[in-house]
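Office hours follow-up: a student asked to see two folded examples consecutively, so here they are.
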Amino acid sequence: MLSAARHPPAASGVLYLHGFNSGSGSPKAALVRDVCASLGLPCATPQLPHRPAAALALAESRLDKLGEQPLVAGSSMGGFLASLIAERHNLAGVLINPAVNPARLVSDWLGERFDNAYTGERFVIEAAHLEELEALTPERVMAERYLLLLGTADETLDPADAFALYRGARTILHSQGDHGFAALADYLPSILAHGGHRLAPGWSGSESRGIEGATYDRNHFG
């Protein structure tokens, strides 16, 4: 389902934010870098800290190198952070299975240790994670600025929560799509169009590498 078309000015770059305990080396981040390179478009896919406030600060620090009006995108927890940045800086955003109330999710993990497969970092979820997320979570957003991509079979987050918060956003529902959103490559034309760009003729999502078949469990929300 895709709502009415939006006609934004062409984005000056793309900032992509990975999900919780994922990394800049994740398949989706690599795919975003590849498609931006094909367009000659500046792109940043930073490795984010596990602490939410630090992750937000690092992500915002990358905006200066992406021109005056970058498109900001993110997956899962990265979608939550992307939304915060889009609201603060009046930018267009693309959110892939975004976390809507991440404090509620993280509250179940207090005291648990996580290992990051991309960086080798080990960390424990502390009360400070929860407190930071609660402080950052907005009560409302300007839904019209977003393109929302939701997998209807997301096993981690309820897509109805995102659909409710971002009601009015252009929305794509991927039937039976899971939290990892393995079909991301097929939606890149829509993502780039939301940023005012068109992919070169001949682009095929089926030629893209790395996401299909990837596994996503409670320790990795790419």
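And the second, which I mentioned at the end of office hours:
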Amino acid sequence: MHKSNKSIVVAKVTISLLILVMNGSVNSKESTEPASISPINAPESEFIEDDGLFDDDGQLEDDGLFTDDDGDDDDLFSDDSPLDVTEQIEISDPFYYFNKAMFHVNDKLYFWVLRPTALGYKAVTPQFFRVGVANFFRNITMPVRFTSSLLQGDLESTGTELGRFTINSTIGILGIMDPAAHYLDWQPNNQDMGLTLGKYGIGNGPYIVWPVFGPSTLRDTVGRSADYFISPLTYLQPDRLSITVQAVEKVNETYFSLGDYEAFKQAYIDPYERMKEFYIEYRADRIAEE
């Protein structure tokens, strides 16, 4: 009886140990499996690509690309430096419609008469002849340049013109050759009475385009009239001879400028306006010369 009770106790202890061992192995197996995690709907963070332009706070970095070395903003459209503005010359053109009509008349006159005549003149005359004619007319119109220089008080140019006329009219065979320029370097000064009036402070006045003579101003028209009366060509007799000689001078002069007017017309959309500006600017530059 005693042995049977002892056997029952041993059996209970053994069964209890087995239960404890099995329970521990089950808990160990469950702990090795990953726990189930419920999804969390967290707000997505805004993605900012780090290209070196932003700092840690998402602000635009100042690395000197957008500021000057001294820290000032470099605004391309706010330049405080003074602008170099060319002084514009006021051009009075009250005779616009007349001038525009005369511009077209001279344009047709050039292409229909002067240019073909100059080309024909070139075909029948050698180069040395044309140069000689140009020298002759330059020499014979010396009184215009002499008087203009004298009235301007330019004694050096006045003396040069007188010396040129003396040498070229004798050694240069009535001015056909120009030994004064070639051997003595005495160059003509190309002054006229219009420039003389300008140097005395007289303004341009209205812009005027004359047939045959081309662009001018009221001041230069008065000066050209004075040049006409000073020039010896005016007093050639009979009058027909004077007109013929001056026509030859015009044709010879046109030969030396062939192609210039054609290039000018092709270069500008409104040749009338540009011719007016060129003429006024050219005369102003001549007057400003010392």
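Two things to take away from it. The longest helix spans residues 2-32. DSSP finds eleven helices and two strands in the chain.
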